[in-house]
Amino acid sequence: MFMLFRPIRCFKTVAGNTAIGVLALQGNVSEHIGAFESAIKGLDLDIPVIPIRKADEIPSLLALAIPGGESTTIMRLIDKNRMRDVIREFQGGIFATCAGMVCAARNLIDETRFSPLDLLDITVSRNAFGRQRESFEADLKITGFEKPFHAVFIRAPVITSAGSDVTVLAEIPQGIVAARQQKKLILSFHPEISHDLRMHEYFLKKVLSLS
Amino acid sequence: MILEDLRFGTELIKRGFASMQKGGVIMDVVSAEQAGIAEDAGAVAVMALERVPADIRAAGGVARMADPKKITEIIDTVSIPVMGKARIGHFVEAQVLEALGVDMIDESEVLTPADEEYHIDKTKFTVPFVCGARNLGEALRRINEGAAMIRTKGEAGTGNVVEAVRHNRTILSEIRRLKGMEEIELVKRARELEAPAELVIETAKRQRIPVVNFSAGGIATPADAALMMQLGSDGVFVGSGIFKSQQPELMAKAIVEAVNHWNEPAVIAEVSKGLGDAMRGLDVHALPPDQVLQNRGW
């Protein structure tokens, strides 16, 4: 008798590591979770997205997103929750936006109150555009993107210098605003609030090589 | 990027700024030194004031915007956002605060209102505003005027959380009551709430107000802060509660951690140990009517 086996669901599950975590200490956490969930659904993947509040939840993740918020607060809470070494040793992907860029930096300009995580060789200037009244939105040309990305910069940082192993994806007169090194994607702006999922999709497809 | 196409002060940027404060503690400070302590403790922002609400109560008279010199000193001291308070309806105080470079303006009932008919038209400003509310209608009226963040009014300067709890519960219960209503019912409800129908419809659909919702007015301990978080707040303002306590540095750090671990009683217990006296509280029911701040604004 001839039988045809057909899976009912055609989601592609990712073997091994389990989930995408969004560091949920302070800031724009739910927006990142929502954007990742929509991007994952759009790519027909089946990966849960979970908020991360404890250090021991990090090592098994597929990737960790460090969201926007206040970098001094987030760094203080990273240390208070003993996450610094765990994040530094984490081998999965990193998706860091705005305050996340500050946290991920090797060096910070004019900032002695805290030391960042040194996840990649970048020097970052905090509040590089000025105060909130100087926050802006604009269409940004990004390498690898066919159409410009509508980027929202809120008291945003920029990368002022980057090591030779860091690939610059977008640069404006004030500095580098999007960069990538292996499985790490670092952005000055907030792709989670502009209702454009291409940045999250790019991270899943190109940076993590899923789909 | 085409530099002529940069857009400043849009609703997305204003609400985005407010959203970045989520899960955070915003602390009232009256000096650069206090601002430094707040920043080191992990505050997401500071509110630069002439006096904390408890001292405004004690001083009486007309309470106004802080001295611009003081605000500038605080801005120069910290790297986190600095907020300032303008009197209800006093759009020139708000213009001054914007010119000084404050990151968010609190149109606040803690100061003496300058206009008893109209709040500030907040859409005219580049910087975002936060406004107090006691109920859903008040919150939505402020959002309609351009507020990017809502906070409960509570009863500032009392160290008594009861009014913040009341206002928070009122807003949440009014949102829940919208659930399942048909559009024509929502339009009718909007008339009763004295709020724009489209905002009522959006609130009903999302089952939350369209902007970030913080708690304020009477939060004095780590447990108070965690209470407001468990009641569904996105974050808290602590006014007199920190620098009117016996050990402000410890209290500030403890409240930041309690907000971070708002759902973990064991952590709240741990951080609450040995903080010394919290600020002395006031019985809200014993306040003479002219000293009740929450009834300012409408």
UniProtKB/TrEMBL annotation, chain B:
Keywords: Lyase, Pyridoxal phosphate, Schiff base
UniProt cross-references to InterPro entries, sorted A to Z: Aldolase_TIM, PdxS/SNZ, PdxS/SNZ_N, RibuloseP-bd_barrel
CDD domains to which the protein is assigned, alphabetical: pdxS
Enzyme superclass (EC): lyase
Residue sites binding D-glyceraldehyde 3-phosphate per the record: 169
Swiss-Prot/TrEMBL catalytic activity: aldehydo-D-ribose 5-phosphate + D-glyceraldehyde 3-phosphate + L-glutamine = pyridoxal 5'-phosphate + L-glutamate + phosphate + 3 H2O + H(+)
Keyword Transit peptide set for record: no
Listed pathway(s): Cofactor biosynthesis; pyridoxal 5'-phosphate biosynthesis
Domain PdxS/SNZ N-terminal: 12-216
Keyword Glycoprotein: no
Pfam family, one: SOR_SNZ
Any one of the GO BP annotations: pyridoxine biosynthetic process
Chain positions recorded as D-ribose 5-phosphate binding sites: 28, 157, 218, 239-240
GO molecular function list: pyridoxal 5'-phosphate synthase (glutamine hydrolysing) activity
Active site (catalytic residues): 85 (schiff-base intermediate with d-ribose 5-phosphate)
EC number per UniProt: 4.3.3.6
Function, as annotated: Catalyzes the formation of pyridoxal 5'-phosphate from ribose 5-phosphate (RBP), glyceraldehyde 3-phosphate (G3P) and ammonia. The ammonia is provided by the PdxT subunit. Can also use ribulose 5-phosphate and dihydroxyacetone phosphate as substrates, resulting from enzyme-catalyzed isomerization of RBP and G3P, respectively.
Subunit organization: In the presence of PdxT, forms a dodecamer of heterodimers.
NCBIfam families assigned to the protein according to its UniProt record, in alphabetical order: PRK04180.1 (NF003215), pyridoxal 5'-phosphate synthase lyase subunit PdxS (TIGR00343)
Protein family (similarity comment): Belongs to the PdxS/SNZ family.
Protein name: Pyridoxal 5'-phosphate synthase subunit PdxS
Organism: Methanospirillum stamsii
